[in-house]
Design a protein that fits this description.
CATH class: Alpha Beta
Strand order of the largest sheet: 1-2-4-3-5-6
Order of helices and strands: EEEHEHHEHEEHEH
Radius of gyration: 16 Å
Number of domains: 1
Oligomer: single chain
Strand content: 15-25%
Distance between the termini: 20 Å
Low-confidence stretches: none
Number of helices: 6
Mean pLDDT: 96
CATH architecture: 3-Layer(aba) Sandwich
């Protein structure tokens, strides 16, 4: 069962958030962070997938501070719009949208649940930053986090166990930077797939069913180990 709530962040920003509940008592919670395309059908499906696996899934709209109700597809025009919105977010004073992510973590933890966080593309970068800077997490899983293998983010230190997924054909994240990240962050479990950026999204041309299935299996095992 899914519904929408508005979470109040530290600066009293009311963040529209998609919440998907499991059929029974949650085994834990997962915060799901969007790409630059908003909390669209794909991200809602991802959240529903974690709910089907027994987790309370919470997906905050991380564009709320610059534009509400963003739901984009994957055309070139949609990508240009998404990049424009991300640029606006990048110009916000620190900590910016991380306060909204913290509000989602706090909501997910209500009732004593352990919380993991999973994010894709820009959401993958935010997931890495959350693992290094925010409180209340037990695990983090960034998928092809754009920017996390470059400075200054590559030098951050995670507070919780991290599992990271990358594609070896990803022109947004050069493979040599992934290898450098692995050497710099030996405590992070890094997996590289024969796939492109966005391989988890079945609405994109870069979707790779085999890579997505293996990454999900690894992610669920990782969450079971650290979250419940």
């Amino acid at each position: 069962m899914a519904h929408t709530v508005f979470l109040k962040s530290a600066e009293a920003v009311h963040v529209q958030t998609y919440v998907s509940q499991p059929a029974g008592t949650p085994r834990g919670a997962v915060v799901v962070l969007q790409e630059i395309f908003g909390v669209n059908a794909h991200i809602r499906a991802v959240a529903d997938g974690y709910a089907a696996a027994g987790y309370l899934a919470v997906a905050p709209a991380t564009f709320t501070r610059v534009q509400a109700d963003v739901e984009l597809g994957y055309t070139e025009a949609d990508m240009a719009t998404g990049f424009g919105l991300k640029s606006q977010v990048d110009q916000l004073p620190a900590p910016g949208v991380l306060d909204d992510v913290q509000a989602a973590i706090d909501h997910a933890a209500d009732g004593g649940l352990k919380v993991g966080i999973v994010g894709f593309c820009w959401g993958g970068l935010l997931t890495w930053r959350a693992a290094c800077q925010l409180r209340g997490l037990s695990a983090a899983v960034p998928y092809y986090g754009g920017g996390m293998t470059a400075e200054p983010d590559a030098s951050l230190s995670p507070k919780v166990p991290v599992l990271a997924h990358f594609g070896d054909q990803d022109h947004w994240i050069p493979l040599d930077t992934v290898h450098a990240f692995q050497r710099r962050q030996p405590q992070v479990a890094v997996h590289v797939y024969p796939a492109n950026h966005g391989f988890n999204c079945d609405q994109r041309g870069s979707y790779d069913a085999a890579a997505a299935a293996i990454a999900r299996e690894r992610t669920l095992a990782f969450l079971a180990q650290h979250v419940g």
